[in-house]
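User: Can you predict the 3D structure for this chain?
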Amino acid sequence: MLIDLHSRAEEDLSYIRNAMARAEGLSTVSGKAIMAMGVVALIAGALANSGETLGEQMVYWLAAAPAAALAGIIGSVWKSRRRARGPLLDPVNRFLLCLLPPITIAAVVTHALWATELSKLLPCLWLLCYGCGVLAAGTYAARPIAIMGGAFLGAGLISMTLPTHWLNTSMTLSFGLLHLIFGWQVVKHHGG
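Assistant: Here is the predicted structure, written as structure tokens:
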């Protein structure tokens, strides 16, 4: 009986330690950086409105994507350093490993479809792939991140039903407002 109690206590402590290690990921994503990504998206969407065709509009989005990614990376590294943690913690690596494959797929398919009639599906693809990546990465981050990923998936599915002239607005609202809303939730409840 005593041995069972001791072994059970060790298992419980091991579980608690693992849970605490996983919880470390809760604070590696910067809500402020997510909000900055939303601001970049709102600017890109406003600028893209000057494009007459969807292809011209998408050029603005392609230019904004690296700026938004850079804001996210810099913000997370800054937050990790501010909290006296190394920027390449295991949770950050897992987060990126979840996010990068869908983003890579979106980039490859974008290249393949760019000059075809199917290019009108690219905004939907971008929302869906980003949503998949964020939802998967959300398993290593604060709960609002996973919910945001699901919201992007929903936005991508809705975008598939929209006429082409609404796709820029759909991306602006999705990438802009969802980042602002969920970034604020991370700031408010998960330490910036």
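The first helix runs from residue 2 to 23. The chain has one domain: 28-190.
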